[in-house]
Amino acid sequence: MADHPRPRRSFLGLLAGAIGVVVGAAASIPGLGFLAHPLRTKTVSGGEEPVRVAAPDDVRPGRPLRVNVYGQRRDGWTRIDRMKLGAAWLMRTPEGRVRAFSTVCPHLGCGIDWDEKSEKFHCPCHNSGFGLDGRCLYGPSPRGLDELEVATTATEIRVRYQRFKVAVKEKEPIG
Ligand code: FES
């Protein structure tokens, strides 16, 4: 009876192909991990801890002060030490305590201004107004200004910057 080498050869060919696929897949895993690294890594920091935004003497009673809050951005390729996370309104209460409010309007996210004449915080987008204590006084905003965590020492005012969901009644942090 004659030999049938063909099935044996095709089995070896299949085996070699399968080994090639396994080795190729295994070799590509570190490369994929490298490419996906920034996606899996937290690249912006500064929102976890309060960061310095002003000196205590900078904030006077009845005169809100707008400050920027900076954090750090770092990934596999870049490092930015002063990346703007957002901004805050600082104000001193009649009792001398410093409070901070986000400048993001809780209605739909526009920027909040301080109106010197009426002595109110004001959002020009849909005309919402807020008192010095952050309470919503008029307009469509579903809640008052979002208060941020403040830490004060003899030499500095520190604010922990956070963003909150807009268009909802309760203050809900994002992220
Ligand atoms: Fe401020 Fe609409 S975004 S009132």
Q: Globular, elongated, flat, extended or rod-shaped: what is the shape?
A: elongated
Catalogue the unreliable spans.
none
Share of helix among residues? 10-25%
Secondary-structure element sequence? HEEEEEEEEEEE
Q: Strand fraction band?
A: 25-35%
Major β-sheet profile: 7 strands, antiparallel
Ligand identities: FE2/S2 (inorganic) cluster
What's the number of helices?
1
State the end-to-end CA separation: 74 Å
* Number of DSSP E strands: 11
What does the average pLDDT come to? 86
Estimated structural class = alpha+beta
Radius of gyration: 28 Å
Q: Order the strands across the largest sheet as they lie in space.
A: 1-3-4-5-10-11-2
Q: If you had to describe this structure to a student in words, what would you say it looks like?
A:
The protein is an alpha+beta fold and 175 residues long. The protein is 21% helix and 33% strand. The chain has one helix at residues 5-40; strands at residues 44-45, 51-54, 65-74, 79-92, 98-102, 113-115, 120-123, 128-130, 136-138, 147-152, 157-160. The model has no long low-confidence stretch (mean pLDDT 86). The strands form two sheets. The protein has a seven-stranded antiparallel β-sheet with strand order 1-3-4-5-10-11-2, with no helix packed on it. FE2/S2 (inorganic) cluster (FES) binds at residues 105, 107-110, 123, 125-126, 128, 139-141. The site of FE2/S2 (inorganic) cluster has 12 residues, from loops.
